[in-house]
Each structure stands twice: as C-alpha cells, then as structure tokens.
Specification:
5 helices, mainly alpha, about 160 residues
Length: about 160
C-alpha cells in the first residue's frame, strides 16, 4: 500500500475514531460500570474495545466506498455521515442526560440509518457492506441493552 492510499485510509478511520473518542471523553461513558446491567451485558472494559474496532471497520468501509467511482457513492457517503452524527449524539442522551427512553428512540433512528448505509455500501462494495453489517448487529445489541436499562429506570 503506498503512502497516499494509506493516508486516505488513515483519515477515513480517524474520523469515526476521533468522534467516538471525543463523545466518550465528554460524556463520561465510563459510568456504565456503575449502572444497572441487563442480562447478557458484557463487562464494561469491552465497550471501548468494541467501539474502537467498530470505528475502524466503519472508517474502512467508508474508505472503500469513497475510492469507488459508483454513481451512488456520494449519496451513500452522505447517509454514512448522517449516521455518524446520530451516533455522536447518542452518548449524550444516554450517559450525560440519563434520558434512557429518548436514547432508545435515538438508537432506533441510528439503526435505521445504519441499515440504509449497509444497503447503499453493499451496492457499491460488498466488503464495505459486510463491515457496516457488523456495526449494525452491534447497534441492535446496544439497543437491547439501552431498552432494558430504560425500562429498569422507570420501575
């Protein structure tokens, strides 16, 4: 891989990694350790590891699509950017404001946008679609955790 290609990949990966790190730092996402843990909850240390890996996969997927000359590329990347912004807001709803029910509704929106991203990316590059699908599955799981925490907070 030449330097120019590597640099473009690194930038594509740095965008979601940087946004995720910023949101985690500002919101104090580490508070999960002190919260109610639904059945099937992973240990707290797994979240930063999983999200870091997911951000690398997301960035790589966006890079694969960006490098493709498909007529659908720009629209797919716009949806990708939209889901990144929605993803960025979720930790504020959940961790900073404790708005668990609103966070669950927000994660449903995020899931829809990821699904749309997956469909668009898959049409352009099947590898990119596969990488986004892993993210989609994780967000379904995160939605389950969010919903159970929201219900528990209301009881």
């Amino acid at each position: 891989m030449n330097v120019k290609i590597f640099r473009s990949w690194a930038i594509a990966v740095a965008i979601p990694l940087g946004l995720g790190a910023l949101a985690g730092f500002i919101t104090g996402a580490g508070r999960y350790e002190t919260m109610y843990h639904p059945p099937l909850s992973p240990p707290a240390w797994l979240f930063p590891v999983a999200w870091s890996l997911l951000y690398v996969l997301m960035g790589t997927a966006s890079w694969l699509v960006w490098r493709n000359n498909s007529k659908y590329r720009d629209g797919a990347l716009k949806i990708y950017a939209m889901q990144l912004m929605v993803n960025l807001i979720w930790p504020f709803l959940f961790f900073s404001w404790g708005a668990y029910l609103m966070a669950f509704l927000w994660i449903l929106l995020l899931g829809y946008l990821i699904y749309w991203t997956w469909k668009d990316f898959s049409q352009i590059d099947t590898r990119a679609g596969s990488l986004i699908f892993i993210y989609f599955l994780w967000v379904i799981y995160a939605g389950y955790l969010n919903l159970v925490i929201a219900i528990h907070s209301l009881i």
